[in-house]
Amino acid sequence: MNLTLFGTGYVGLVTGVCLAELGNDVLCIDTDAEKIATLQRAEVPIYEPGLQELIVGNVRAGRLAFSTDMARGVAHGDVQFIAVGTPSADDGSADLSHVFEVAGAIATHMTSFKVIVNKSTVPVGAGEAVHKAVATVLAQRWPGAQPAPGFAVVSNPEFLKEGSAINDFMRPDRIIVGLGESPEEQRAGDLMRALYRPFGHGHDRVICMDRRSAEFTKYAANAMLATRISFMNEMANLADRLRVDIEPVRVGIGADPRIGDSFLYPGVGYGGSCFPKDVTALQRMGDDVGLPLRLLAAVAQVNDGQKRQLVDRLVQRLGPDFSGQRFALWGLAFKPNTDDMREAPSRVLVRELLERGAVLQVFDPVAMQEARRCLQDDLHDRPDLLARIRYAQSPLDAARDADALLIVTEWQVFRSPDFDALRAVLRQPLVVDGRNLYEPRSMRALGFDYLTVGRNAVD
Ligand code: NAD
User: Fold this and answer.
1) Statement to judge: residues 202 and 252 lie in one domain
2) What positions does the domain UDP-glucose/GDP-mannose dehydrogenase C-terminal occupy (predicted)?
3) Overall pTM > 0.90
């Protein structure tokens, strides 16, 4: 099929590349000319394992191209995917301006039937609004008796995870397809099934439903995952107070198939470009219909507190004033295998530590450049704080002469460091682990003062 992707971010680029890999002819459009120029050189503007190889292969095979030309994009695809950002607006609702920009461009340039597929995460009712917006422009373009070209608006929210996006897209658990009521939209369901059939590996992964339900499914899924994380973080904090080790508790509850064992790891709170904004947007949806979502308010509140847990642990050990103290931070990206720093807990942590007077030596295996950009942005009004961040060359370089090491992101490279070398370079052998990477007993046997999230009761 001829497909157009609008938006070449984490979702749009991976979607476009994977659909090309399956043999479709894909044109990816973005308004960011620099991003498109990078992609045209077959370079990847984001870090996502496996993406570079797929881009190079598919561009060479002539199935994948990049452009900033919206009209060309509209002309190319029978299916037009919208995969642009839907960030939080000031009131917490999803900002749909990019979605409507693309919908407007499609309506302005289309001359034949188009299936418009919304992959961006959008609130319930956005598909209807896109349908109306496109119909309005088409009515202006075809005012006479001759009918305007037909179109369908489909909701197809994306569930891939950054860091394993290619595998998630190629082997999805489910593909949600939400259809409107018009005959064109019902027929578009068949087209979507055909497009996604190869990804099922012999199983039909497509779940068709009405469009509003599909839009809601995406938010409900993310809200559920965020809830599990905050639940587990609260249990871990309680475990520490009750002198219980959270690790066997995690294993014990995860063994129940009604609960399952994924997303049950306590840590420094969730971040990234989805959970925080989607939880807030769902809360706004509730407020708008007079149903404040109390559970989600608590989920967000627990998460905000969790981002400060490591600071609280340090304060307990070292007192509230960190002047003259030097700390190492391992991990800045909001999770491993990505360079995404959006809403990363490290950003809150860095500011808190600097405001208490600390000097920071930070290291991340891939997010250093992005971290530098984001921290400069966050602290643009505090050059005095920025001056106290040193970007280290390696994990050990970050730890050198530090009064404590804080582990923020669970990159593989941090899982088995040379502990003797680490202890030798630290000024004090204090490790505050926000990801519970090591066995507390072994760490103590190695001479570390080791603090965790929920495992501090282990003697
Ligand atoms: P992103 O910010 O990485 O990328 C969005 C891209 O859209 C940018 O490159 C931007 O330049 C481009 N863009 C903006 N306006 C445009 C326009 N008018 N025409 C063409 N391109 C335009 O965003 P993302 O992380 O890929 O997320 C996209 C959507 O998918 C969001 O709604 C997000 O909530 C959802 N989502 C994201 C993830 C994830 O892991 N990142 C997972 C599932 C769903």
Assistant:
1) no
2) 328-440
3) yes
